[in-house]
């Protein structure tokens, strides 16, 4: 299998939306409140793509995952209840979702590894993200991948767990 991580295009929104709808349904089945309020939706994906922040994970030519990836662009992170490990430039990612047909293959981790490579290629060594208090699967991935819990941030009226990973420049191959 050959995996690629690249910017999404507007024509791919319908396919991305299917993947996000599957993830929304999974959150609900898991008993999570995350993404049960009409967010994300196709307009959010369009906005990601318009801002050059929408990225897809592909297997050969098939889209199997999605994430929004931005540099220094999360105003809510300035209001953290807690503290970040760094105050330097950072890459933030949101809306990590893997296609239902491709679950259980470690692809969320693979997608996050591509995000780390994206950060390094931009000479950025801090990655920040957040998740809902009841998204235990994502919290487990953060812990396995070396992210540190840093406190709470707030989105759309609810508290979220904030995480940061600092990539050591010596670790780079």
Automatic annotation (TrEMBL):
Q: Annotated Gene Ontology MF terms?
A: acyltransferase activity, transferring groups other than amino-acyl groups
Q: This protein's superkingdom?
A: Bacteria
User: Locate the N-acetyltransferase domain: which residues?
Assistant: 3-170
Record bears the keyword Protein transport = no
List, alphabetically, the GO terms of the cellular component aspect: ribosome
Asked if the record carries the keyword Transferase, the reply is yes
Fetch the PROSITE patterns from UniProt: GNAT
* Name the record gives this protein: Ribosomal protein S18 acetylase RimI
């Amino acid at each position: 299998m050959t995996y690629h991580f690249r910017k999404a295009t507007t024509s791919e929104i319908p396919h991305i939306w299917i993947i996000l709808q599957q993830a929304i349904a999974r959150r609900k089945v898991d008993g999570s409140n995350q993404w049960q309020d009409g967010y994300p939706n196709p307009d959010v994906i369009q906005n990601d793509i318009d801002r050059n922040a929408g990225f897809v994970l592909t297997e050969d030519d098939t889209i199997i995952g999605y994430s929004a990836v931005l540099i220094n662009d999360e105003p809510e992170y300035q209001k953290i209840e807690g503290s970040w490990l760094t105050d330097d430039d950072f890459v933030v990612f949101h809306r990590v979702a893997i296609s239902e047909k491709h679950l259980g293959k470690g692809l969320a981790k693979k997608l996050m590894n591509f995000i780390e490579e994206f950060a390094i290629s931009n000479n950025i060594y801090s990655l920040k993200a957040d998740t809902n208090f009841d998204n235990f699967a994502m919290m487990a991935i953060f812990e396995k991948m070396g992210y540190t819990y840093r406190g709470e941030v707030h989105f759309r009226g609810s508290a979220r767990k904030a995480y940061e990973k600092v990539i050591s420049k010596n670790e780079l191959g």
